[in-house]
Design a protein that fits this description.
345 residues; 9 helices; 31% strand; 3 domains; alpha+beta; disordered N terminus; four-stranded antiparallel beta sheet
C-alpha cells in the first residue's frame, strides 16, 4: 500500500491549534514511515530546503508551516549555524515556542540504515546487522500517532545523522536483515543498547527499578568482553551546585534489587543519579551506571567501567564478537536471551 500524502506541492499556512499534532494516517503507518525530529539541538531559527529543483525557506518569526512531505530526498541548511545536511524522504517544518520544529518523514529502511551509521559507524558486518535489527525494533515500538513526531535524532532515542557518503555501504551490509524484528513471545522487544559493557551485563530492573523484563537480565561476561575501567572526579563545588549545600554523604547501595546512590537520607536509582550529574556537569562526567564512590581531598572520586546505561547489547563488544566470527543472530541471542527474530510487523 502506498502512503497517501496531503499534497503534491508545498503548503505555506498559518498554524491553527489543531495543526500542532500532524500525524501519520493509517495508510502511512502501513507503508512504514517514521517521523523524526531533526536538528533540534541547534535551536534553528531559519531553514532553507533544497530538493534539486526548487529552494524553500522558513523562519521561526513567521509563525508558519512548510509542508514538503511529498519529497523523496532533500538537503537542509541552517544558515545561522552554517550547517548543511541531506536526508531521505520528505520534511515538514513549523514554528515552535523557541525554535523551528523540523520533522523528517522517512521510510523505515532508509531510517534504519542511517541509524546504523550514527550508532556504530562502519563496523564488522554482523555488528552492523545486529544494530539494524535493534534500530528497526526500537523504531517500530516508538510510533506515537498522537504526537507530532515519533523519535528525535539524538542519542536518548537513536542517533540519526541523515545521509552520508557511507549510506550506500550501510544499506548494502544491512540489506540481508531488512524487515527483521527482534521479539519476545511475538512482541517486539524494548531494543535497549549502549556503547560499551561494564564488568557484566545488567538487568533493566537493577538500573531503573521497573518491572523485570525477561530478556534484559543480568549476565556475567568473560574478561575479554568487559569494558575498560574509567576514573572521574566531581569537585565539592560541583556537588553543591547539583545536589545542594547539605548534600552527602554519598554511597552506592542496592534497595529492593535496584542499584542506587544514597545521598544522606535520600536515595536515587543509579541511572537517575548519573543523568542528574551529567546534565549539570557535562555528559561524560559519569560515563556509565557501574561505579564506586570514594571521597578525595577535592571531591568525590568515581571508579567504574563501560559507557551508557549498561542494559542490552554493548555495541563495542558486539563488534568484538563479530570479529571473532559470530553472526548477527548469535550476537542478538547472546545479549537478549530467549528472544527470536521475525520478518515483518
Amino acid at each position: 500500500m502506498k502512503c497517501r500524502h496531503v499534497s503534491a506541492r508545498f503548503i505555506f499556512t498559518f498554524l491553527p491549534t489543531f495543526f500542532l499534532s500532524l500525524t501519520l494516517s493509517s495508510a502511512c503507518a502501513a507503508d512504514e514511515l517514521i517521523r523524526v525530529l531533526i536538528l533540534s539541538k541547534f535551536q534553528p531559527q531559519s531553514v532553507v530546503i533544497y530538493d534539486g529543483k526548487k529552494q524553500y525557506s522558513i523562519k521561526q518569526s513567521e509563525n508558519k508551516m512548510l509542508d514538503l512531505r511529498h519529497l523523496s530526498d532533500f538537503e537542509i541548511e541552517l544558515p545561522l549555524q552554517r550547517i548543511r545536511r541531506s536526508y531521505h524522504g520528505g520534511v515538514w517544518i513549523k514554528s515552535g515556542q523557541q525554535a523551528l520544529m523540523i520533522v523528517n518523514q522517512v521510510g523505515l529502511e532508509d531510517y534504519v540504515s542511517e541509524v546504523v551509521l550514527g550508532e556504530v559507524g562502519i563496523a564488522p558486518t554482523a555488528a552492523m546487522q545486529a544494530q539494524a535489527v535493534l534500530a528497526r525494533s526500537y523504531a517500530v515500538r516508538s510510533h506515537r500517532p498522537a504526537q507530532a513526531y515519533d523519535l528525535s535524532d539524538l542519542a536518548y532515542h537513536q542517533v540519526y545523522p541523515g545521509k552520508s557518503v557511507y549510506s550506500q555501504l550501510s544499506r548494502q551490509r544491512t540489506e540481508p536483515v531488512q524487515g527483521q524484528l527482534l521479539k519476545w513471545q511475538r512482541e517486539t522487544v524494548q531494543a535497549l543498547y549502549h556503547a560499551e559493557c561494564g564488568s557484566r551485563m545488567y538487568g533493566a530492573r537493577e538500573v531503573w527499578g521497573k518491572d523485570k523484563i525477561a530478556y534484559l537480565v543480568s549476565q556475567p561476561l568473560t574478561e575479554l568482553l568487559q569494558g575498560k575501567p574509567w576514573h572521574k572526579q566531581l569537585s565539592f563545588k560541583e556537588i553543591s551546585q547539583i545536589f545542594g549545600e547539605d548534600s552527602g554523604p554519598f554511597q552506592v547501595t542496592m534497595m529492593d534489587g535496584v542499584i542506587g546512590v544514597k545521598n544522606g537520607h535520600r536515595w536515587l536509582p543509579v541511572d537517575e543519579f548519573r543523568l542528574q550529574v551529567n546534565r549539570k556537569a557535562g555528559w561524560n562526567k559519569i560515563p556509565s551506571n557501574e561505579f564506586t564512590i570514594s571521597y578525595g581531598k577535592d571531591g568525590l572520586n568515581f571508579h567504574g567501567r563501560g559507557r551508557g546505561h549498561l542494559v542490552g547489547m554493548c555495541q563495542q563488544q558486539a563488534g568484538q564478537l563479530a570479529e571473532q566470527g559470530w553472526n548477527y543472530q548469535q550476537i542478538l541471542y547472546f545479549f537478549y536471551p530467549g528472544t527470536r527474530l521475525f520478518t515483518g510487523l
